[in-house]
Description:
This protein is α/β, with parallel strands linked by helices. It has helices at 18-26, 78-90, 111-122, 137-146, 159-181, 188-202, 209-218, 253-257, 290-298, 317-327, 395-408, and strands spanning 6-10, 31-34, 43-47, 50-54, 67-70, 75-76, 100-103, 107-108, 206-207, 223-226, 266-272, 275-277, 311-313, 315-316, 331-335, 345-354, 357-358, 371-378, 412-416, 424-426.
Amino acid sequence: MGPRNVTVVGLQWGDEGKGKIVDALARICRYVVRFCGGANAGHTVTVGEETFAMHLIPCGILTEGVTNVVGNGVVFDPPVALEEIDNLRARGIAIGPENLRISAGAHMVMPWHKQADVLSEQVLADGKKIGTTGRGIGPCYSDKAIRSTAIRVGELLQEDAFRRKVHDVATVKNKIFSALYDAETLDPGKIAEEYVEYGKKLGPMIDNTGAILRKAIASGERILFEGGQGAMLDIDHGTYPFVTSSTVTACGVPTGAGVPPSAIGQVVGIIKAYTSRVGAGPFPTEQDNEIGETLRERGREYGTTTGRPRRCGWFDAFAVRYAADLSGVHELALSLLDVPTGLDEVKLCTGYRVGGAEVERFAPSAMTEAVAIYQSLPGWSADISSCREFDDLPAEAKDYVDALEKAIARPITFISVGPERTQTIVRQTQIEGLE
Ligand code: IMP
C-alpha cells in the first residue's frame, strides 16, 4: 500500500485559499483531481512573481509529474477550459494528455445553461436571488438530473450524433426561453460546430478517468482530491437555497471522482482566519462596517471568477466545527492569518442565539435568525509575513490559533502568512512525505 491519499476541502463559503495548499501538496502526489463544481471556482496560486487563477483546471497543473483529472462530478465548460489551457501554455506550462485528463462522463456546460442562469436570476425579486456566478452551474446540474436534455463530454467524440443532440436540445431550450423570458433564441447549428471544434482540441484528453484513478489506487499511487467552493455552499448541507449545485464536502469525492469512499484518505480542511461570502444568503458573523471593509481590502476579497466584492466578517467556529465533522476532517490549514494583523481585537463565533436561547446543535437553517456569540481575543500588530515557525508568531496570534483549534477540535497543521509558496508554517502534519 502506498501513502494515504489527501482530500482538500473548504470549510467556509469558498475562497479559503485551497489553491495554495493544493499546490503545496501536489508535489507529493501523482494525481490531482477536481470532483465538484465547475468554472464557478477560482483557485489562486502564486509562484514567485506570477499569479495563476484556475477555474476548471486542477491546481496540480503547475507541478511537473502530476496527472490532473477533471472528474465526472464536475460540470465542464469547454471554451473556458480551452482559454485557461491557452493562457497556461502561453506562460510556459505544457498541457496535454500526459498531464490532463477530462472525464467523458462529466456533464458539459452549454451556452443555454449560462443563458438560463442569468435569466432565471434576473426574474427573481431582491432577497430571493441566489447571487450565482452566472457560469451556468445550476442549470447544467439540473439537466444532469433531468437526463433527457443533458450532454456529457464524451459525446463530443461522436460528431454526428453530437450535432443531432445539440439540435434536439437547443430546440427544447429555445421554446423555453421564448415562452418564459421572451429571450433571444440560440442557433443550434452554430453551437454544434463551435463545440465540435472544441471536441477536436480536447479529444486526446477525454478519458475514462474513474478507471484511471481506481487503477492508481490499486497500484498504491497517491491521489489528491481538490475540493471547490466550501461546505456552507454544499447543495445538501449548506445554507440552502443560497448554495451551489454540487456536493462540495469530502462526501462528494467518491461519486464525483468515481472512487470508493475509502480513497478519501487524509482530509485537510481549509479555513481562513476570518470569513467571507460572495453572493446572497445568511452570514451571522458578517461585519458590514469598518472591520469588514478592512478585512476586504487587506485580504483583497474580490471574486476571482466574477470580481464581485466579498462580504467579510469574523471567523465562525460554530459553523466550521459542523463542516469539519461533516467532511471527517483530520487536520486544518489556516490561511490569510496575516490579514487581521493590526486589528485591536480578533473575534471568533463559538455559538448562536436564536430568539434569546442558545442553539444546541448547529444547523445551517439556524443561521438566518442567529445572533453570534463571540469570544474576543487581543489582536497583534507585528508583521507576521516572514514567520516560518509557529514560535516566530506574536503571542496573540498564537493564542488565536490555539482558540481556533479548541473550538474546531482539530489541529491546525499549516498556517499561511502570505500568498507565496514559501510563506507557510508547517507543523505536526499527519500527511506522509511532508512531516
Ligand atoms: P453558482 O455556483 O454559480 O450557482 O453560485 C451559487 C453560489 O455559490 C453563489 O453565492 C456564488 O457566489 C457561490 N459560489 C460558487 N462558487 C464559488 C466559489 O468558488 N467561491 C465562492 N463562492 C462561490
